[in-house]
Inverse folding.
């Protein structure tokens, strides 16, 4: 009986480890994939539009 239980435990640990490795690989792909435009490609849509503050007139 204990042999079957330990086999199930090893199988479950291997499954958890495999899922963790796949998750880390997906995270690395997302982090290191190029998001900036290449030399011949159009720029992707920007999630944020950056604007400089407009100068205000001050009385002095």
């Amino acid at each position: 009986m204990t042999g079957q239980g330990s086999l199930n435990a090893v199988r479950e640990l291997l499954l958890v480890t495999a899922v963790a490795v796949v998750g880390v690989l997906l995270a690395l792909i997302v982090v290191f994939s190029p998001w900036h435009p290449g030399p011949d490609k159009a720029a992707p849509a920007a999630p944020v539009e950056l604007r400089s503050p407009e100068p205000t007139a001050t009385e002095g």
